[in-house]
């Protein structure tokens, strides 16, 4: 069981978190002009790195979204950050 | 093997004798005996049969490493290691994989055919006619123990989460010292050991520590630790190290209680897990009577058992001399065969130096060995030591990498792993720790004695799985030279002992055969658990409703009193219908009551998520497929929430309480999902300071009054609201008061009848329900269960998410195209509605289906069919189907290709190969103009 | 040297100490150039090479494998084969695989131990029975075998199952596919490897791809830990590591890698004769020929390349098993492990040319790759040999994501709700 550091609540069990995708996966704006390729890249394509990852997570118990840097092979967590106020667009895709 | 009980034995209490049966034979022993020690003392040499060749097998070890002596104990688990099971008076023990007994096994003949069934032979045959025709017999032959189907233990394993500063695994000398050092430095310590007592090797090896006998020192240290508040757990195996150094411990339950699982988080971990003795490779080295030299010492010192009369100690290292001397002192006739030529022999022992054992002979038990000098020596016990393999399993699971040490011929922990220290024999240090003033040094001085190729007879590598040197040679011959291929092809190391005694000998032979050094061959991956762990320990109390607790209504007791029959709906336990009798009749009657009079419904699980703040309206425009910002305060609007992929995720009514305050209603099974989605978009896309989201689902009960007499009933409640249709029209919401508490009344209907949905704080639900029941009496109000509600909404063609939709449904499939065409702003999933798929003409669309073949209800799940090149193709399926009480005929809903443009068309449906015929009709079968909503 | 496997050759070899067997495959040095190169020596890669050689008569082929062949998910799965899918596209794919499996032992001259002992997917409520009917009808219409089982049928095939109405997940019936079952996973890899080797395919183990050779906008081969290997067409068949290699090739994939865990109990005499899956508990199980209960469940929650098990999912999977079979409380867990699975947004595989011309994909099988090995190999072989899709693989092209034409089995059969 991994421990993830919620920036608001401290280290908590992995079972309390929801994976939100790559950090920096910006939603392309303007549905009339966004191309299939741009939309597909946002909606489906993933970095899925082997090694250092920069990801968005939600701590479901406090409801806050944050960014976390971790290693996907060894599972070491480097650090986590609260997202800046209102700067948004960091990704959570469905 | 003619083992015999002598004096002493620190583990047993000679004052308390016990008797049990083994394969029907009575065995006597003492309290403290293991099943293995009692059998050994009782002269039982054959304890079981090997997996494949059904060779007779005796004891090899004295602990977790035991490969042979697996037994079934009546009332307990199959495949129990006899070396670890305490003997209990009256128990019935059976050998495994033997029929009728280990001594006389009817499959023993298989050994004669061994040459035709080498490793992996099954891949080369049984192909004609096919495997499945051979398989049943082979399955019957395989397996080891027998499951007792009658045992259904109701007791649950406890699971304990524990935090400490230092976890020490192994309470031998190195572990005890580490624990004491940490404890004295003020650390919170947990010390565990899989033995029944602390001490590890100190319990059977000689050596004074700090002026005390080893076992006494161990007991004193444990007492000191316990005194100072450390946790000392015996009978407890650390079976795995998981992510972020979570360590799993399994603690053996006392007196038949289930085992207990510990999940331990420790700042640092000390592994003092010891080392396991390896067998020596010689022909027929699997015969009963051939035992680990260290195990023989355990049986002598712990259980007072001398392994034989005429004992041969065979060793390639110095550690076996303690066994030799102890057994000689106990009266055995001891000969040492030392594989090393150049060693000083202790006085008083017969030592044959520089010789090796070539083969052992005997039927059912060893009776002689042949040495490399050609001599043949009679013996009734061969006590072998082929060196020691440090138990590095946990270190490797913690992602440690091993180094090979030529001086001790063993893999030892290599680079350090953060937070994990390995000490003592597990680190390859077979002497007592210097800092505790151990006086006795043991010269290890090992020489290689690895299995050699081309031996004429069989040399066993893996005892339990019957893997011999020939099998390893075969694997190499066929180019299975990766260590993982070797393991899988020969099954070496895959038995219940997971190769604790066999792996290194196998690697060494592989190295020899492929001209590599042992470290170049490498090891297979060490996987948890270290020893098999009861499944029940992992399950803990997760059983029945504790597996996934059902959510319960505030009014559950009231519904029970009214005879509700409950079912699980999306994780909520809800009334399906009320009362005894034929369910269909009850359900139909409830539905009729709602159409003809008035009915009361508990809709409390309905999601109620409040969205509050100055940006709430544009936020909800983004969330919903439909435009929501134009909704007037006090009004409600139905809408879809989509996924970003453009599929319908949920539907529901949005209520606008005032300019900046909304309530999102969502499906009861989607509350957590919708809440998460709202939070994510709030934080990710909007100014999160200007929107507040609050999930009020659990704090508000929702009680619905529905039916033509609903208004009349509401009138008598006196909730302080005007009920006329101008003050509270359909799809409007007002605030009322009930017994001094504010509540919300909305004209929202899921039945097609005039309905009042009353949301009340959950702690007032009982009172309001009672008031509704009381007021309802005058109107003949009936209680409405979920099944009747499903019929009512189906008559109206209202969808249920997940039943009439699936994960591929798009909003246009339900005829809702206006937002896509007219809405000005972005919303979730919008761009996905512009893809090729969304524009396809042959999408499945939501329609009604009317059976026209007089065969009754259309089965839900029946598919529309059309001929195709491949035979048939599906054109969609029935999603809901009921007998309509209002229309007195079957009705059905479905998703049918191009259905919305095929009204009136007759299609064929197939269900379990039967054909039905139905006409495509409007989804709304009853009151299409909606006049009853206002009646 | 004895090449052919049969009871007679086994007998003959038995008489001479099993010393005459030919190597199952050679260990050749990589050549600088092949007609077709396949990255990944798992089941799908090996099968691709075999069908290229056998069906398309292309023999100058190499498979490169960074570790040992069959060492990825092929050797880590729970060995279930089945084709009980909802959409016709999926049925065509998995039915192709199952049909090939049915003749594979003899085709390869290697006993893959296909055991068609049937799979039952349980239904825990009336609503789930309706969904089960929807699935059974779809399967029958799409031309594969399926039956809707009632509670009595379930009792018959699973006598030890807890069918108490009071159970947390009571059993109403389920979807039965009798032709489904298990096959010995290692044998599938080894059988394809041996047969491909016999047809001249070079299987090169311990050879890791370091980079792609991209010239003129096309993939022209790879640089490996054992030197450059050139080929005009390259197939990439690396499951959970697809994204990692795609990055080297300059594109991203709609894939997230997760650990999928499995475990086995100690071996016992036979008590479970079919494969069983309970959507309620999320656990599935079968008993191997060796007697071990082979148990699996849901993906781990956290994207990962760490090939190891953990406790939270294991605890859920095991408790699910004991809820289904209370008498299994007597069993012990013997070994747990994990594979890295490549999960796509619709949990269907990706077959087709990649954004880098000359590089073809077979990936995205997620938790279900083993059962599809013969079809995955056939279809990628077709792509590599002809440059064009087989009818069966066309719907699974990467372009389905931009076209919005996902093949989402879970969504279609109602599991997502």
What is the name of the CATH architecture of chain A? 2-Layer Sandwich
Beta-strand content estimate of chain B: 25-35%
- The total of beta strands of chain B comes to 53
Please tell me the total number of domains of chain A: 1
Regions with little confidence, pLDDT below 50 for 5+ residues of chain B: none
User: What is the overall shape of chain B?
Assistant: elongated
Oligomeric grouping of the chains: heterotrimer
Q: How far apart are the first and last residues' alpha carbons of chain A, in Å?
A: 25 Å
How would a crystallographer describe the biggest sheet of chain B? 7 strands, mixed
Shape of chain A: globular
Our Rg estimate of chain B from Cα atoms comes to 38 Å
Q: Work out the helicity level of chain A.
A: under 10%
Annotated CATH homologous superfamily of chain A: Folate-binding superfamily
Compile the SSE list and pairings:
The complex is a heterotrimer of chains A (about 90), B (about 950) and C (about 425).
Chain A (H helix, E strand, L loop, with lengths): L2 E4 L3 E4 L3 E6 L13 H8 L8 E8 L4 E8 L5 E6 L12
Antiparallel strand pairs in A: 1-2, 3-4, 4-5, 5-6
Chain B lengths: L3 E2 L7 E10 L2 E7 L3 H7 L6 E2 L6 E2 L12 E4 L6 E2 L10 E4 L39 H7 L17 E11 L3 H12 L4 E4 L15 E2 L2 E2 H14 L3 E3 L2 E7 L3 E6 L8 E12 L3 E3 L12 E3 H11 L1 E2 L3 E6 L5 H9 L3 E6 L11 E4 L3 E5 L6 E4 L4 E3 L2 E5 L2 E3 L2 H5 L4 E4 L4 E4 L6 E3 L37 E3 L4 E2 H9 L5 H8 L12 H12 L3 H4 L11 E2 H5 L11 E2 L3 H6 L2 E6 L2 E7 L4 H14 L2 E4 L4 E6 L3 H8 L12 E7 L5 E11 L2 E6 L4 H15 L6 E4 L4 E7 L3 H8 L15 E6 L2 E6 L8 E7 L3 H13 L4 E3 L1 H11 L21 H5 L21 E8 L11 E6 L2 E14 L4 E9 L8 E6 L2 E8 L14
Parallel strand pairs in B: 2-8, 9-10, 9-16, 10-13, 16-30, 18-26, 20-21, 20-26, 21-22, 34-36, 37-47
Antiparallel strand pairs in B: 1-19, 2-3, 4-5, 6-7, 6-8, 11-12, 14-15, 15-16, 17-27, 23-24, 24-25, 28-29, 31-32, 35-36, 37-43, 38-41, 38-42, 39-40, 40-41, 43-46, 44-45, 45-46, 48-51, 48-53, 49-50, 49-52, 50-51, 52-53
Chain C lengths: L6 H9 L20 E4 L3 H12 L6 E4 L15 E2 L6 H21 L10 E5 L2 H16 L5 E4 H7 L15 E5 L3 E2 L2 H14 L3 E3 L4 E7 L2 E7 L2 E4 L2 E4 L5 H8 L6 E10 L9 E4 L4 E5 L5 E11 L7 H14 L7 E12 L6 E4 L5 E5 L9 H14 L13 H4 L5 H4 L5
Parallel strand pairs in C: 1-2, 1-12, 2-8, 4-14, 12-19
Antiparallel strand pairs in C: 3-7, 4-6, 5-6, 9-10, 10-11, 13-16, 13-17, 14-15, 15-16, 18-19
Helix pairs in contact in C: 2-6, 2-9, 3-9
């Amino acid at each position: 069981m991994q421990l993830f550091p919620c920036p608001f609540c401290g280290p908590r069990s992995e079972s309390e978190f929801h994976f939100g995708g790559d950090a920096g996966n910006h939603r392309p704006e303007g549905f009339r002009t966004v191309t299939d390729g741009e939309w597909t890249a946002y909606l489906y394509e993933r970095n899925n790195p082997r090694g250092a990852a920069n990801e968005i997570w939600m701590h479901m118990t406090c409801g806050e979204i944050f960014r976390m840097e971790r290693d996907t092979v060894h599972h070491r967590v480097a650090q986590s950050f609260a997202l800046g106020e209102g700067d948004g667009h960091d990704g959570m895709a469905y | 093997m003619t083992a015999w009980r002598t004096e002493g034995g620190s583990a047993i209490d000679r004052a308390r004798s016990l008797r049990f049966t083994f394969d029907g034979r009575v065995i006597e022993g003492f309290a403290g005996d293991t099943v293995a020690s009692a059998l050994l003392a009782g002269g039982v040499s054959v304890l079981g049969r090997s997996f494949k060749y059904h060779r007779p097998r005796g004891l090899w070890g004295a602990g977790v490493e035991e490969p042979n002596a697996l037994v079934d104990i009546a009332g307990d688990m199959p495949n129990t290691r006899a070396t670890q099971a305490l003997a209990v008076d009256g128990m019935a023990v059976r050998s495994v994989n033997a029929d009728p007994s280990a001594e006389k096994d009817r499959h023993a003949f298989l050994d004669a055919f061994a040459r035709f069934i080498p490793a992996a032979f099954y891949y080369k045959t049984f192909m004609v006619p096919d495997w499945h025709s051979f398989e049943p017999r082979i399955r019957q032959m395989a397996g080891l123990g027998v499951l007792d189907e009658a045992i259904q233990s109701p007791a649950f394993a406890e699971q304990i989460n524990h935090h400490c500063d230092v976890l020490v695994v192994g309470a031998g000398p190195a572990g005890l010292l580490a624990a004491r050092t940490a404890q004295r430095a003020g650390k919170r310590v947990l010390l565990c050991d899989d033995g029944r007592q602390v001490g590890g090797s100190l319990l059977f090896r000689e050596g004074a520590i700090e002026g005390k006998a080893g076992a006494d020192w161990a007991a004193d240290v444990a007492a000191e630790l316990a005194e100072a508040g450390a946790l000392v757990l015996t009978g407890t195996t650390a079976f795995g190290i998981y992510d972020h150094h979570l360590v799993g411990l399994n603690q053996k339950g006392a007196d038949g209680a289930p085992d207990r699982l510990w999940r331990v988080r420790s700042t640092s971990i000390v592994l003092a897990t010891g080392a396991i003795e390896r067998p020596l490779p010689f022909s027929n080295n699997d015969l009963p009577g051939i035992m680990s030299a260290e195990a023989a010492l355990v049986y002598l010192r712990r259980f007072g058992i001398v392994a034989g009369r005429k004992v041969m100690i065979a060793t390639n290292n110095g550690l076996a001399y303690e066994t030799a001397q102890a057994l000689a002192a106990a009266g055995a006739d001891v000969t040492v065969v030392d594989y090393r030529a150049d060693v000083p022999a202790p006085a008083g022992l017969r030592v044959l130096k520089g010789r090796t054992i070539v083969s052992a002979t005997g039927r059912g038990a060893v009776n002689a060995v042949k040495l490399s000098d050609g001599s043949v020596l009679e013996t009734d016990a061969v006590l072998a030591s082929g060196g020691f393999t440090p138990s590095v399993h946990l270190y490797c699971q913690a992602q440690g990498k091993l180094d090979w040490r030529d001086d001790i011929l063993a893999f030892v922990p290599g680079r350090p792993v953060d937070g994990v220290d390995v000490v003592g024999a597990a680190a390859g240090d077979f002497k007592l720790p210097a800092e505790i003033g151990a006086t006795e040094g043991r010269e290890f001085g090992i020489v290689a004695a690895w299995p050699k190729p081309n031996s004429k007879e069989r040399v066993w590598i893996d005892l339990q799985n019957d893997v011999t040197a020939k099998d390893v040679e075969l694997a190499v011959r066929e180019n299975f030279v990766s260590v993982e291929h070797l393991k899988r092809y020969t099954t070496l190391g895959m038995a219940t002992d997971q190769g604790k005694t066999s792996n290194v000998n196998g690697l060494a032979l592989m190295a020899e055969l492929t001209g590599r050094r042992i470290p170049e061959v490498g090891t297979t991956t060490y996987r948890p658990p270290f020893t098999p762990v009861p499944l029940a320990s992992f399950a803990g109390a997760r059983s029945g409703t504790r597996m996934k607790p059902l959510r319960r209504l505030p009014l559950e007791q009231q519904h029970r009193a009214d005879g509700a029959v409950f079912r699980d709906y999306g994780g909520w336990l809800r009334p399906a219908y009320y009362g005894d009798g034929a369910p269909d009749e009850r359900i139909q009657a409830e539905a009729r009551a709602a159409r003809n009079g008035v009915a009361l419904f508990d809709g409390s699980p309905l999601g109620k998520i409040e969205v509050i703040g100055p940006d709430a309206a544009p936020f909800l425009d983004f969330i919903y497929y439909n435009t929501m910002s134009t909704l007037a305060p006090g009004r409600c609007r139905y809408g879809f929430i989509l996924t970003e992929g453009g599929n319908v995720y949920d539907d529901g009514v949005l209520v606008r309480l005032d300019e900046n305050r909304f309530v999102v209603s969502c499906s009861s099974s989607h509350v957590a999902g919708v809440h998460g989605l709202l939070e994510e978009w709030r934080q990710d896309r909007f100014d999160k300071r200007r929107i507040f989201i609050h999930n009020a689902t659990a704090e508000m009960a929702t009680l619905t009054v529905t039916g033509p007499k609903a208004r009349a009933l509401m009138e008598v409640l006196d909730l302080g609201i005007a009920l006329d249709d101008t003050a509270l029209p359909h799809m409007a919401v007002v605030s009322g008061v009930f017994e001094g508490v504010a509540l919300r009344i909305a004209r929202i209907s899921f039945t097609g009848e005039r309905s009042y949905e009353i949301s009340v704080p959950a702690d007032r639900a009982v009172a309001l329900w009672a008031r509704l029941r009381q007021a309802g009496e005058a109107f003949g109000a009936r209680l409405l269960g979920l099944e009747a509600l499903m019929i009512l909404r189906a008559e109206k063609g209202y969808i249920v998410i997940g039943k009439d939709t699936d994960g591929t449904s798009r909003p246009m499939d339900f005829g809702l195209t206006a937002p896509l065409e007219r809405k000005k702003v972005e919303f979730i999933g919008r761009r996905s509605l512009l893809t090729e798929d969304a524009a396809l003409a042959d999408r499945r669309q939501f329609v009604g289906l009317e059976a026209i073949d007089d065969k009754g209800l259309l089965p839900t799940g029946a598919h529309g069919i059309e001929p195709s090149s491949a035979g048939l193709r599906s054109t969609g399926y029935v999603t809901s189907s009921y007998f309509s009480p209002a229309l007195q005929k079957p009705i059905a809903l479905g998703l049918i290709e191009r259905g919305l443009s095929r009204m009136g068309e007759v299609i064929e449906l197939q269900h379990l190969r039967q054909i039905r015929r139905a006409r495509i009709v409007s989804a709304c079968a009853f009151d299409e103009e909606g006049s009853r909503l206002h009646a | 040297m004895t090449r052919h496997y049969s009871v007679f050759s086994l007998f003959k070899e038995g008489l001479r100490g099993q010393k005459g067997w030919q190597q199952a495959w050679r260990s050749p040095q990589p050549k600088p150039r092949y007609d077709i190169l396949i990255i990944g020596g798992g089941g799908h890669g090996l099968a691709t090479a075999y069908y290229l050689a056998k069906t398309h008569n292309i023999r100058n082929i190499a498979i490169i494998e960074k570790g040992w062949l069959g060492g990825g998910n092929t050797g880590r799965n729970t060995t279930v084969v089945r084709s009980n899918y909802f959409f016709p596209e999926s049925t065509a794919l998995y039915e192709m695989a199952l049909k090939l499996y049915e003749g594979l032992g003899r085709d390869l001259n290697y006993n893959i131990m296909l055991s068609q002992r049937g799979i039952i997917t349980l239904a825990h409520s009336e609503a789930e029975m309706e969904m089960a009917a929807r699935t059974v009808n779809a399967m029958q219409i799409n031309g594969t075998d399926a039956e809707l089982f009632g509670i009595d049928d379930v009792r018959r095939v699973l006598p030890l199952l807890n069918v108490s109405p009071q159970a947390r997940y009571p059993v109403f019936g389920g979807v039965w596919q009798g032709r489904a079952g298990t096959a010995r996973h290692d044998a599938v890899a080894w059988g394809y490897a041996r047969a491909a080797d016999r047809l001249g395919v070079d299987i090169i183990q311990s050879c890791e791809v370091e980079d792609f050779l991209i010239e003129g906008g096309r993939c022209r081969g790879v640089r490996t830990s054992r030197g450059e290997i050139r080929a005009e067409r390259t197939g990439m068949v690396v499951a959970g590591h697809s994204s990692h290699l795609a990055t080297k090739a300059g594109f991203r994939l709609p894939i997230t890698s997760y650990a999928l865990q499995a475990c086995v109990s100690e071996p016992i005499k036979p008590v479970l004769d079919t494969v069983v899956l309970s959507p309620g508990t999320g656990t599935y199980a079968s008993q191997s020929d060796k007697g071990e209960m082979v148990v699996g469940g849901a993906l781990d929650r956290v994207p990962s390349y760490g090939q190891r098990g953990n406790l939270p999912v294991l605890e859920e999977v095991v408790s699910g098993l004991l809820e289904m079979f209370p008498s299994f409380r007597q069993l012990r867990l013997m070994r747990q492990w994990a594979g890295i699975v490549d999960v796509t947004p619709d949990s269907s595989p990706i077959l087709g040319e990649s954004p880098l011309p000359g590089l073809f994909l077979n990936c995205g099988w997620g938790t279900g790759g083993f059962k599809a090995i013969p079809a995955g190999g056939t279809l990628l072989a077709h792509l590599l040999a002809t440059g064009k899709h087989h009818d069966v693989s066309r719907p699974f092209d990467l372009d389905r994501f931009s076209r919005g034409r996902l093949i989402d089995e879970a969504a279609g059969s109602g599991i997502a709700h």
